[in-house]
């Protein structure tokens, strides 16, 4: 029987259960809330750079997620090019071929927008989720395990209060639990602050990337309007 199962069994029969402080529990809730927000923002980043479901699926199954498939601007350019080859009027064909170049340029910028979004905005959030948040979850689980060990020792000592060996086990378990709890409590403080910094930095980067994208797109189509 594992320590966790033993601890649960003790508690079900009225045994001891070490209770976390309200402050610690609140920190866990706050941390998980920020974690969910970052995961949601990461999902929104994907939505912003995905033309449609079909393109998204192509990106997922392709080794090169940036260069896979044609985006919406390139599709328009390709359609214009095919049509320009079918008309006989040279003047009209020239206009359409120029339009294709404009949409190709827009398509390339759209690709770089996707890359910029993933590298400059999503990357830091993804790293925090996969590294920092994962480490916090691991430490929270470790504290829970140490609490189970402590509760098992306490309940054993209740049955044999004069057993010196069990007393020593209980004292050691209590010391380890307190040490783990203090370490994890501080880690929660640090990562709650870090998560806020990650979100703030990502939003600044997001606005900068979108501003650059809109400016470049405006310039591309402005040049096309002069033709």
From TrEMBL:
Residue ranges annotated for the BAR domain, each copy included: 14-197
Keyword Transmembrane helix belongs to the record: no
Coiled coil (UniProt feature): 133-160
Pfam families for this protein: BAR
Keywords: Coiled coil
Superkingdom as given in the UniProt entry: Eukaryota
GO CC terms of this entry: cytoplasm
InterPro entries: AH/BAR_dom_sf (IPR027267), BAR_dom (IPR004148)
Protein name in UniProt: BAR domain-containing protein
């Amino acid at each position: 029987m594992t320590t966790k199962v033993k601890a649960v069994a003790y508690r079900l029969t009225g045994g001891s259960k070490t209770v976390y402080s309200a402050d610690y529990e609140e920190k866990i809730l706050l941390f998980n809330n920020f974690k969910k927000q970052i995961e949601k923002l990461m999902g929104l980043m994907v939505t912003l750079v995905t033309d449609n479901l079909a393109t998204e699926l192509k990106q997922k199954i392709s080794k090169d997620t940036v260069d896979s498939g044609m985006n919406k601007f390139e599709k328009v350019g390709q359609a214009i090019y095919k049509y320009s080859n079918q008309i006989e009027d040279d003047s009209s064909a020239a206009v359409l071929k120029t339009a294709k170049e404009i949409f190709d340029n827009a398509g390339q910028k759209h690709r770089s927008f996707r890359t910029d979004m993933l590298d400059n905005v999503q990357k830091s959030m993804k790293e925090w989720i996969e590294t920092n948040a994962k480490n916090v979850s691991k430490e929270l689980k470790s504290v829970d395990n140490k609490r189970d060990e402590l509760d098992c020792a306490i309940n054993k000592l209740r049955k044999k209060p004069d057993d010196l060996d069990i007393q020593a086990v209980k004292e050691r378990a209590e010391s380890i639990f307190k040490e783990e709890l203090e370490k994890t409590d501080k880690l929660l403080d640090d990562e709650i602050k870090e998560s806020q910094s990650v979100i703030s930095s990502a939003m600044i980067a997001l606005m900068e990337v979108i501003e650059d994208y809109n400016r470049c797109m405006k310039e591309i189509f402005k040049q096309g309007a002069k033709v």
